[in-house]
Amino acid sequence: MIDVVKRFLDYVKIDTQSDENTINCPSTEKQFSLAKLLVKQLEELGLKEISLDKNGYVMATLPGNIDNDFPVVGFIAHMDTSPDMSGENVKPRIVENYDGKDIVLNEKENIRLSPNDFPELKNYIGQTLITTDGSTLLGADDKAGIAEIISAIKYLNEHPEIKHGTIKIGFTPDEEIGRGADLFDVQKFRADFAYTLDGGEIGELEYENFNAALATITVSGRNVHPGTAKDKMINSIHLAKELDSILPVFQRPEHTEKYEGFYHLIDFKGDVEQTVFRYIIRDHDRDKFEEKKQILSKSVDLLNLKYGNNRFTLEMKDQYYNMKEKIEPVLHIIEIAKRAMKEVGVEPNVKPIRGGTDGARLSYMGLPTPNIFTGGHNYHGRYEYIPVESMQKAVEVIVKIVQIVGDKT
Predict the structure, then answer these.
(1) Could you give the 3-state DSSP secondary structure of residue 150?
(2) Taking the CB of the first residue and of the last residue of the chain, which one, N or C, has fewer CB atoms within 10 A?
(3) Residue 373, Cα to own-chain centre: how many angstroms?
(4) Adjacent-strand bridge partners of 170
(5) Over the Cα atoms of the chain, what is R_g?
(6) Cβ(4)–Cβ(392) under 8 Å?
(7) Shared domain check, 231 and 181
């Protein structure tokens, strides 16, 4: 337990925030700071085939210690943190023997982590929590996954009596901006299947995720002095608001759950002359996903017909698809993870991801990759926290998966 906590606390202090406003890979040079540290630690553990490429991808191999031809299993986590909130000067706090009451993250600003707002906290009474200081995110997404993978590898190194086949390790950049798998070399990785350690609370096991698209709409207006604007001014802001009002109100994230999809307005910038705004479109069902895209496209067509001159320009791009299609033919890898959890005392919670994951893209690239919990909660913000006991269980699950694969699949 000490090993995984120490690693995690070291990792979160390294700023690895990604940036969607650049085409570089990695999107921020500072991700190399963590990548280089990980390479050093993997070398110290004696792993083989360690590499850090020019795009920030780290790979390594723990050779098998048995002669039999067993499947090669991989474990993957991402190094970057969300662009939504600063990952600089992270000052993690450790709350031992949590008493079930409010945790004061920042006394001066009266920022509290409260079970009134986050009832799941009550599940961790008596446990040790790692929280933020209220000014940054924590970075458990996904530095907890990295710490858990490396701690599990260290444990396997120290316990050669645990027989296992070849194990592959991969750490990726830019997952938070949807590019984590863009330049991942599946052929170089050479695993039969893998697991991302990028889930939330203890027990999560996920092999279904959203189909996803990004839509950017540009609205062209006409700016005229308001004193002489009658029948001349065309305010692009009002036109943009009209488009938003056409889309179904109850298909927004704040009104949906489980398998329900949504339109999410994520950015809106404009003036009278021009407004640019973006939606992410999500649905687990591929047909409903395509229908949502059509609704948005037809709404744009309708307003162009109403206002003329192609005032609305739509650019829409698919981002990733539901990995369920690629995992169902190899459901035994889900059964392996479920069995591993049960054998270390964790109740599996198989659920769909209301988001995306590197595993979705990798599954479509030929590497079936479901997702396993790290233990974290409230990712991407100041209320993020992770129970130490959940991190330890994640380490145990990794080790147990390796054992099961090494016994017989």
Answers:
(1) helix
(2) N
(3) 11
(4) 59, 76
(5) 23
(6) yes
(7) no
Number of domains in the chain: 2
pLDDT digits (tens, 9 = 90+) for 290-317: 999 999 999 999 999 999 989 999 999 9
The answer on 274 and 217 residing in a single domain is yes
Render pLDDT for 265-281 as a digit per residue (tens, 0 to 9).
999 999 999 999 999 99
Identify the domain containing residue 137 by its residue range.
2-208+322-407
* Residue that finishes a domain, picked among 258, 292, 320: 320
Q: How far is CA 251 from CA 89, 261, 345, 378, in A?
A: 37, 7, 38, 22
Do 299 and 327 share a domain, yes or no? Answer: no
CA distance 322 to 210: 5
123 lies in the same domain as 200: yes
Q: Rounded to 5 degrees, what are φ and ψ at 205?
A: -140, 120
Please, are residues 311 and 234 in contact by the beta-carbon 8 Å criterion?
A: yes
Q: Does residue 309 sit in the same domain as residue 328?
A: no
Task: Write down the residue that tokens 């640019």 correspond to.
Answer: 276
Pair 55, 183: CB distance under 8 Å? yes
Residues marked as catalytic: 80, 175
Q: What is the DSSP letter of 355?
A: S
- Report the distance separating Cα 281 and Cα 213, nearest Å: 5
